[in-house]
Amino acid sequence: MNISLETVDTSCLFDYVLLEKSEGLAYWMSKTRPRTAGKKTASALFWKYICLDNKRIGAIWIEKENTADSSASLGIFISHDENLGKGIGTAAIKAAVAQAQKEMLFAKVELNVRSTNARAIACYEKCGFKETGRFMKNYLDEEVEVIIMERLAH
Description:
Layout: E1 3-7, H1 14-20, H2 25-28, E2 45-52, E3 55-63, E4 71-78, H3 88-104, E5 108-114, H4 118-126, E6 130-139, E7 142-152
Parallel strand pairs: 4-5
Antiparallel strand pairs: 1-2, 2-3, 3-4, 5-7, 6-7
């Protein structure tokens, strides 16, 4: 199993749109793209496809609101159930944080995850993230509890 990261070419997002349409993805994800996509420089946005044996199966991004910020936000999705539970997310997160930190110089990484997404929470914990808070959010006409997690970048 060969996991790699490939830069998302924002001028041609056809493959990306196909990944976003994966069945069930909308239930778990409130967004499938960086908030700052198309608005930020490389020093504020790291956006990559997750590839398994050279096939695009998901995406990961790390973004900062401003280049001077000391914290960054992480987002990730992996499409299709057959790609889940194989350690792909763990490998992608570890690689992305290491690569992005060199380019973006942040001290910590934060993320939000549904409290019911046990698989994702276990993945984040393997990557060193710890819970730092919780809040309620209305998503698709449903109140969901969201966990805030963070880890130091080193």
